Amino acid sequence: MRTKIVAGNWKMNKNFQEAKALTSELLGMINDEVQGNVKVVLCVPFPYLDAVQNMLGTHKRIAVGAQNCSEHVSGAYTGEVAAPMLKSMDIPYVIIGHSERRQYFNEGGALLAKKVDMAIANSLTPIYCCGEPLEVRERNEHEALVRKQVEESLFHLSAEALQKVVIAYEPVWAIGTGKTASAQQAQDMHAVIRQHLAGKYGKAIADTITILYGGSVNAGNANELFSCPDVDGGLVGGASLKSREFTDIIKAMKA
Predict the structure, then answer these.
(1) What domains can be seen in the chain, in order of their start residue?
(2) pLDDT tens figures, 19-33
(3) Which residues are listed for substrate binding in this entry (predicted)?
């Protein structure tokens, strides 16, 4: 059975006091809402990782994640954060290849493959992001692009290593725009990704991979999105900054 995950990506939002307040609110609200094999991950800014992790304590269902890591082990890379640093803090998850990293920091497939390797080597679960911009979808080239993104950064992995990866499909045109892919569009793309994995690793392996949908997930559309057979949860942006709405999204994720 695939693990169901609702991950909140806080991006570069909230000051320290606000971050602690939000974490406290979420702990109070979702403690009884996480059921079965559903996990909640709070991907918070680097300066808040330790504090949020301490607030979560030994909670079995709620974990903390980083939003990025370097492809380097260590060295003279001012401003970067290495996967071994995250490992030393017992951070279990890290987002790799978010569309904003691709767009603003020119991160491509080869670089992201190195980051995926670095995460896995340090016992981190990479949440690997892929997805198409609007112009690519309008040219009906979105499936080809996403297959290429998956190939470039994941197909070098062994089957064993692949099973340590979570994939997040995020149509770029639906991130922070208020637009959301329809449930059918999300299901179709998730099925494309899973079929592509099956072509490389076999159906049995592909069926174990958790694939999340990211792109303006909110309390109003979560039920329909999460009911799709190949949608195993969500990578939630803006709505994860609102404790009540994020809790409602989590409630929509059935084990």
Answers:
(1) 65-241 (3.20.20.70)
(2) 999 999 999 888 665
(3) 9-11, 176, 216, 237-238
